[in-house]
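for the record, two folds in this file. i put them one after another cuz i was lazy. first one right below, seq on top, structure tokens after. the second one comes after a little note so u can tell where it starts
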Amino acid sequence: MALNHKKSSGKWWETEYSGNIHSYLQYREAECRMEYGGRSPQIHMRPVLLKTIRNISKTWEMSNVSVHLAITLLDFFMDNHDLKFDTAMLVSFACLTLAAKIEEHSLNIPKLKSMRNVISKDVTNSHFRYVEMKILMFFNFNVAIPTVAHFIEFYKEHFYCDQDFYHPELKDILKDKFDKIILFYQDKSLESTKLISYNSSMVAASIILTTRHTLGLSPCWTVKLRKVSGYLKKDLVQCCSLLGRNVMQRRKYVQVDEGYFSSSPGYHSPIILGTKKKRSHLDVPSIILSKRIAY
């Protein structure tokens, strides 16, 4: 499922098959569901690991899709394993390389030697491949998981409606702010562990709704967006709230509990369900640096 535009000549969300691809992504989203319990003993390390992944991805000019996929793999793997700090750092790098192998050109895949300031020189390629294999086996080699970044590009194509541009000059002004705000909310969605349990398509749709609200566009959730996403406006209340924006104060939304099922087409429960896996212990004590990295 390498749908990153960097790997292909065109952008899938702009093709005539975009609707079919979106439906397939939603199917994969349901198929790849796992339970997230927030039970990792090392969850306090998550901000540092996120920063590491972002810094490496920026250095290697990787796409936002790869970053989201890497963090998704890391979150669910850590949730089911007890990792030491340095091992967690190695796992985060392995998640990023796996994501890059799916979404990037070979030239944009980080090399082990680029992490020598974090990982011991004693970590060989075979050791690193072992960690990658542990991650692949945990996910049953099913690591091509749809993320917020996959869905957001499709929803962005349907962001505007005709009444948004009541003045010709407003179009350029809105589009200039639009991409920056979308990227801001995407980053915020990665920082919240509470959003991990929600479908990626729901989080992506909530980002679009919140962005329209931030830009002062009315309605916040258009008929077109409802049709392409399969979500009603009230389905997105909790996600919008978790994004940390004041979406509900100015508008009367209907509160939705976690068991709510919408009648809208293609909708799935906002909480990702799945089989709970027993947490295991993964440690590579002899090959990891003992010192911690300061940020």
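(here's the note) second protein begins now
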Amino acid sequence: MMTRVRKDPAERRQELMTIAMELFCANGYEQTMVQDICKQAGVAKGTFFYYFPTKEDVLKAIFEEWAKKFADDFTRRAAGLDAVQKLRLFLQLSAQENAIEPLVDNLWAEHYKELVMALWQRIVSNGFNPLLRKIIDEGNEAGSMQVLHPEECLDFFWSLTEGMWPDEKKDIVTDESMAIRMEMAARLIEQLFGMKIGSMAHWENAE
């Protein structure tokens, strides 16, 4: 008979999320059952459901954890930067490969586009937009930005970034095309945030 190891609730919750992430990436979200996660974690189903009411809830938790790590990393690196530099940093970090990409690719391939978009909108609203609103406030106050309608500005900003990194074309976009997209995005972001021409030039390069 297997001896169950008692763990701190936060540690157990994190363990279930880590195992779920690994299985979702290895076997696919559709093919991974709650019992598979429990078996690998060595816990009963009741333990899983204590932390996550459904399989989708553990998926939400994985996305939220990634967003929190992004926000924490951004906040740490942004200390001492002005608003324009912070916006450049935000874009740089957004463009980097991240741990959640394989999971997103799997979900996309399994035709869970609506679920991915719903999770993404949740992250944008609760995690990323508060960071960007603060940048806008600082930029407006310093005079380096002129954003009269922050909410509308952010809506267009996210539409712009989606066009910069199109999921449907990411495997066929050439380096030349990507360079053109980044240059065009820089000009549009400058206009959108009311910044001086050149403020976002070569934003993809580290400060």
